[in-house]
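Title: Comparing notes on inverse folding

I've been comparing how different people in this forum approach sequence design from structure. To keep things fair, I'm posting one structure and asking everyone to reply with a full sequence. Here's the target:
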């Protein structure tokens, strides 16, 4: 085993890595571990923010598709939150949208909490007796 010490110039923290690779430079190995850590942080962020508990499929395409869909949904929520300038969290916005999924209603009125306007039935609508 090879023990490598590395001091991060940005944070000043000292890291120690164990590796069985004797041919690469210490800086290269430290960079590889830093990249691996970024991948771990990315998946932690996905679990916390995109609410992906399990993956539906096991193929690369299935996993990538599920991540892309979740990312698109997260970005849409962030855009809605930014443009509406409301104080609700993204989770609260998502819950409101889920509860009113099949309601034909203005999104901004829903987010503001405006009461639902009940329209009169059109004149040519059939009435049940």
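Reply #1:
Here's my take.
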């Amino acid at each position: 085993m090879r023990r490598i010490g590395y001091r991060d110039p940005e944070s000043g923290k000292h890291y120690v890595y164990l590796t069985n690779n004797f041919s690469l430079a210490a800086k290269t190995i430290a960079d590889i571990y830093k990249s691996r850590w970024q991948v771990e942080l990315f998946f932690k962020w996905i679990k916390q923010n995109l609410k992906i508990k399990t993956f539906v499929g096991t193929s690369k395409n299935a996993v990538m598709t599920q991540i892309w869909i979740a990312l698109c949904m997260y970005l849409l929520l962030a855009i809605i939150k930014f443009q509406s300038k409301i104080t609700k969290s993204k989770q609260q916005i998502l819950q409101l949208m889920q509860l009113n999924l099949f309601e034909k209603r203005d999104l901004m009125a829903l987010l503001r909490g405006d009461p639902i306007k009940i329209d009169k039935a059109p004149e040519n609508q059939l009435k049940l007796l």
